[in-house]
Amino acid sequence: MVLGDSFVVWTIGFSCLLAFAFGATGTTLVPDEVNALGQIARRLGKTNWDFSVDPCSGQSGWKTLHPLKGSENAVTCNCSSDNTVCHVTSILLKSQGLPGVLPPELVKLPYLREIDFTRNYLNGTIPPEWGSTKLEIISLQANRLSGSIPKELGNITTLQQLVLDHNYFSGVLPPELGNLVNLQRLLLSSNNLTGQLPDRLSNLVSLKDFRVSDNKFSGKIPSTIGNWMKLKKLEMQASGFEGPIPSEISILENLTDIRISDINGPDTSFPSLGKMNLTTLMLKSCNIIGELPPYLAKMRQLTTLDLSFNKLSGQINSSFDSLSTVYYVILAANMLSGPVPLPMLETGRNIDLSYNNFTIGSSGVPDCQDQNVNLFRSSFRNSS
């Protein structure tokens, strides 16, 4: 008997079992959805759902009241006012050790709005059937999923979050993802995605969080990211893109977190970011030349500054001392020169100024033994 036939036989038998289990008491979840949950459980490898009780009851494996940190096990329903009819609205199965595959049968839960299968052992591909759902949140982070991202996901115009990072997805991004005008989070980091970002992604005008680090993309960072006016977090570390960083980034004034690294291409000047209230700024190995822009010293919310492995020159302005909120300052492997402002080294920050050309005066290297400061090969002695 082939796998497809055995699954049909199992489904029929399971339906009979459900009819027996709920026939006397009457379940609040409609029978078609109970049956769909049985099929979904088999696909996922979920073994502890107890179908002798109502799946919306929160009992017997349907909900863990006090899960371990980072894990979650819950089926949530929305019920009528008299609690006689319920529909499944979310399935959250985080860190449950699920060894199976993604279930196409999600389409049999018409009221389902959220799935979260984060940190499991799920393999295989994303079923294209999901394109007919009305999901708002899809989180498949940290599994063993592979194949291409199906273009059918672009049909889920209700989608607000698509979290696919830390898997083995490959191929190019389907342009149809540009149809997701309500999408706020698109997380694709740590996959094997290739090709260029589709131009139609410029239509994602609701986007607030975009992460594509650790992939194999090609081409330039598109200037159309300037359409993402609501963007708060942008991560493109070791993503394969070429520079320069488009000047349109300067109009994204809602950005608070920028992390871009390993951009190949021509030398480029420091982007204009002075109108942003950044907390994290990482522009590492981006072929940036010129001096540190004065506006950096005015970023009162900044906690992390990493500009390492560029071609920055000139001196560190003494106004940088006023950045009391910055805890990490990484300026290693540049061509910075002049004296290092001593107050900058005396505030308990974690600082890396190694591999630069700073001048050390007659007093020698500042006493940083009690500080988290790296000055290795950061200077030459001033003989005057």
UniProtKB/TrEMBL annotation:
It comes from the Eukaryota. The keyword Thylakoid does not apply. Residues 139-313 form the Disease resistance R13L4/SHOC-2-like LRR domain. One of its GO terms (cellular component) is plasma membrane. InterPro entries: Leu-rich_rpt, LRR_dom_sf, LRR_R13L4/SHOC2-like, LRR_Rcpt-Like_S/T_Kinase. The keyword Repeat applies. Transmembrane segments: none annotated. Keywords: Repeat. GO terms for molecular function: signaling receptor activity. This is Probable leucine-rich repeat receptor-like serine/threonine-protein kinase At3g14840. It comes from Nelumbo nucifera. The gene is LOC104590729.
